[in-house]
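Summary of Year 1 activities. Much of the first year was spent building the evaluation harness for sequence design. The harness presents a backbone, in tokenized form, and records the residue chosen at every position. We chose the following record to illustrate the format because it has been used consistently in internal testing since the harness was completed.
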């Protein structure tokens, strides 16, 4: 126990005696670990920010049924292809998503035709809670519907002179429903010409219980995650088509890949520079302390004990530099995310370990050469000043 205390005292006194050199090493280690910490936090925050922004583009995976196709012709004449209506099984879709382990926002859709206002109207059955999460850009005048209510697209409302509060009677193949218009939606897309009602109500009206025509999924994209997710889901749904919305996928994957590559390159350059600086400074320290090392060996200190002393100094510098680097790096990350991305970086204790790890790695790696020199040092020659 006393031997350990003696070694610790030697370490602290050695660092305190060379204040200038110690301060320089701490500054280098803190700079390297702080930059690694800052870039790591910024990269993590950026990935979450990009994922949030990409959500505004809507779903990036679309699941549709394989249409039943029938070639029409006679003899050598081909009149084209007739596609019969095809549907996805809602239960099968839910089971496939559960088995795949895919973490994604989802929206189930059923599109069909109901008769109302002396005309056939295109109606889409949805879960409005899912719609609000997956399509945040929808502009709604009025309120989101409750049971027995629906939403009308702005173009259709203008054409049929509909307004909130009106009640419509819609006839389907299986039954007729009366629904009150709770709101009018505007999205700038095809939704403006549709009626939207609760999915179970439309399934009952059309006599298509448990049937879907479309499933939209929002998967957090990154690297090849989207492509792998589509392939995994396709294997579980052989009777369906799983398609990527490539514009959204390329935007998210490309931006994230470039950001990560930039972070890696900058971090690598800084770590190499810091490691070289630590190695040079530690080598100079060993040369200056040659007589001190020779004296410790002459007094009975073994080569391993002397090396342990220098290793302890490096480890102490690494711990102090890593702690300072984490605090400084967190402040840098907060500044970058606020000024560049108009967001706030999260407080991530995980990166405290990253900062300490980087600092300790650089301190010990930079001390390998000097410690080998210490191990080989001849105490007689060092005391003579040779």
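For this record, the design step produced the sequence shown next.
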């Amino acid at each position: 126990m006393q031997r350990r205390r003696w070694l610790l005292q030697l370490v602290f006194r050695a660092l305190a005696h060379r204040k200038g050199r110690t301060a320089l090493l701490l500054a280098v280690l803190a700079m390297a670990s702080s930059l690694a910490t800052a870039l790591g936090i910024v990269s993590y925050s950026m990935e979450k920010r990009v994922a949030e922004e990409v959500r505004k583009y809507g779903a990036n995976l679309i699941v549709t049924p394989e249409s039943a196709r029938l070639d029409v012709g006679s003899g050598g004449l081909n009149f084209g292809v007739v596609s019969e209506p095809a549907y996805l099984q809602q239960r099968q879709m839910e089971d496939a998503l559960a088995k795949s382990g895919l973490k994604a926002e989802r929206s189930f859709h059923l599109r069909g035709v109901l008769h109302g206002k002396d005309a056939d109207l295109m109606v889409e059955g949805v879960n409005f809670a899912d719609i609000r999460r997956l399509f945040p850009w929808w502009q709604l005048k009025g309120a989101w519907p409750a049971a027995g209510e629906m939403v009308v697209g702005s173009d259709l409302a203008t054409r049929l002179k509909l307004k909130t509060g009106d009640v419509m009677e819609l006839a389907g193949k299986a039954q007729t429903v009366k629904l009150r218009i709770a709101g009018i939606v505007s999205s700038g897309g095809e939704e403006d010409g549709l009626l939207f009602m609760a999915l179970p109500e439309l399934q009952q009206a059309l006599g298509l219980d448990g049937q879907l025509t479309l499933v939209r999924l929002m998967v957090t994209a990154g690297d090849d995650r989207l492509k792998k997710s589509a392939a995994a889901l396709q294997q579980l749904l052989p009777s369906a088509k799983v398609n990527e919305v490539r514009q959204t996928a390329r935007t998210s994957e490309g931006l994230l890949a470039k950001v990560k590559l930039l972070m890696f390159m900058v971090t690598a350059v800084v770590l190499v520079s810091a490691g070289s600086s630590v190695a040079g400074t530690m080598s100079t320290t060993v040369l200056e302390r040659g007589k001190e090392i020779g004296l410790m060996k002459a007094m009975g200190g073994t080569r391993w004990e002397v090396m342990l002393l220098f290793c302890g100094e490096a480890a102490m510098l690494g711990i102090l530099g890593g702690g300072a680097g984490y605090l400084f790096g967190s402040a840098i990350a907060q500044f970058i995310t606020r000024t560049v991305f108009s967001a706030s970086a999260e407080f991530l204790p995980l990166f405290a370990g990253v900062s300490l790890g980087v600092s300790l790695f650089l301190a010990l790696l930079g001390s390998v050469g000097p410690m080998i020199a210490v191990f080989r040092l001849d105490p007689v020659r060092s005391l003579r000043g040779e």
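The chain has a mean pLDDT of 77. Quantitative recovery figures across the full test set are reported in Table 2.
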